[in-house]
Amino acid sequence: MVALDKPDAESALRLADALQGTGCWMKVGMELFYAAGIPVVQGLKSRGFNVFLDLKMHDIPNTVRGGARSITRLGVDMFNVHAAGGIAMMSAALQGVKDALEAGDAASEPIVIAVTQLTSTSQAMLNEEIGIAGTIENAVVNYARLAKRAGLHGVVASPLEVQAIKTACGTDFVTVTPGIRPRGADAGDQSRITTPKDAVRVGTDYLVIGRPITGAPDPVAAFESILEEMSE
Ligand code: C5P
Prior knowledge:
The chain is α/β, with parallel strands linked by helices. Helix content is 48%, strand content 13%.
């Protein structure tokens, strides 16, 4: 999945056009969606891309239910909520999907996943700022278990936690992992990172990669070299 963190539709769709035919998904996050909104999602869908709408909802259950209903109507293939919102909130997201499908407002059912701990969160931040005791892995696995109990399809986590999540929640439980850095790339603000090769090795289902592609002088060449690292 390419994280299309671009400030406007033109630059996002230019990159999407360059990557058409590769089979990658497009991840639309806050920067692009808040600037370019629904038309950019439709532009990606009309070009044949699967779209992960990464808006990380975290609100009271009734609001998340309505938000999920609206997102499902857009026809995206995946969206997410924060596991920190709890089981009632995560279940409400699924209810919102159901509402849209039952009303005939949506053609397909999106995959719904929960953010566990952001890949920018370090062990010290978790304990000292966020106020959760114990290891990152435990915190992530606890949230993954909650997401599974709520009926969600999977979670967003770092590749470093994929094996523990699969052990706790089963191999079918989907893992979507940002925090991927090809050999020699800059970590930026990410803390819990691995290479594409290691992410594949631990059994990640979807690798999310942004700046190593979007910030490269030749994004298509960067994308292809990541595919090569993955196939190693
Ligand atoms: O540029 P980079 O490869 O770090 O991009 C990672 C993408 O994944 C960003 O769009 C970021 O918002 C997103 N993300 C993340 N950690 C999460 C969930 C999403 O980095 N836990």
